Amino acid sequence: MLLVVATTGLGNEARSWLDRMSHAAKEQNYQGVLIYGAPERWETMAINHAVYDDTEYEKLVHLTGERREVIRRGHAISCSHPGDHAVRVNPTSSNPLNTELWRDLGDLESWYRLSLAGEERIAGRMTQIVRVLPRDQYRFGYDLWLDRDTALLLRSDLVRHDGVVLERLQFANVAIGIEMAKSEFEPDYEGHHLARHNHAEVSPVAATNAWQPGWVPSGFAPVNRGQSHGRHLATLMYTDGLAAFSVFVDRLSNPEQSRTLRQQWGATAAIVHDVLGDDGSYRITVVGEVPMQTAEKIAASVSVPALLTLQEES
Question: What number does CATH give the domain 221-313?
């Protein structure tokens, strides 16, 4: 009985750390250099984050490869890239910290086992390690290093079921709680072409009878569902509070373009699966940080919605 009580207490404490983490990433002022990626490819990014009058300001500058820059002021985003084209980014994926996904961690303990796993020094600061292990085979686990003073995420390892680290992000240096002038969030216009757009806050949405998977792992809920979004017929995103995947639907104008793709890059799985409807062929693409078997099962469950067929027949 004492062991059960102690284990439950540690789980509750771990959940408390994760709740603090979700607030710290959005409410703290911080500045640092972040290294992230997998053994095959590492990226380096400078991050500035501050809050002015309850509005988040964020500036991300890629330090490897071509200079890319993403600036966010509340829901307004500016993206810059060298050359003659503008780059638009998914706000939930432009920042590798994925802070937009942490607004509601929900019933996380139903899908993960949470525990504390000691302390370690990261980027010159002491951290509390929180271990997040999946309760099923449909998602990965995480080891999270949270700043002892603020709970800001300083390192994250995305871990396969056999313990292999698939992806890591870690601050090489970081300053927390500092004052930053708004001028530090101005874009660098020289040599860059800018694209500006707004995005809505990530939030759960109700399911519809339009394009959607027939199966997703328990705990994954749709956010920011979009039909006829941009160049895609449908764009859907799902998250369980930590992991996320996206589903894209496109119409194939030429049935001979039909193809199947199965690819894994570190923690990211990508599946291309074509389906045939009464009015032609459609391409289903699933991309996300989930196991390959999960992405395959999701893609196979997407079918042409009955509502679409009825509308086109009427």
Answer: 3.30.200.100
pLDDT digits (tens, 9 = 90+) for 195-254: 555 555 544 444 444 788 999 999 999 986 554 445 678 899 999 989 999 999 998 887
pTM for this model (two decimals) = 0.83
Non-local (6+) Cβ contacts of 227 within 8 A are 210, 211, 233, 234
DSSP element (H, E) containing 134: strand 125-134
Residue 254: count of CB within 10 angstroms of its CB: 8
CA pair distance 152, 299, nearest whole angstrom: 35
Look at residues 97, 125, 131 and name the one whose alpha carbon lies nearest to residue 18: 131
Poorest-confidence range of 163-177, 210-224, 249-263, 288-302? 249-263
What's the confidence (pLDDT) of residue 312? 37
Domains 2-198 and 221-313 share a fold: no
Instruction: Report which listed range, 136-145, 178-187, 278-287, is most confident.
Output: 136-145
The 3-state DSSP class for residue 233 equals coil
Q: What superfamily would CATH give domain 2-198?
A: Lipoprotein localisation LolA/LolB/LppX (2.50.20.10)
Residue 236: alpha-carbon gap to chain centroid: 13
**Annotated domain spans of the chain:** 2-198, 221-313
Q: How many CB atoms lie within 10 A of CB 314?
A: 5
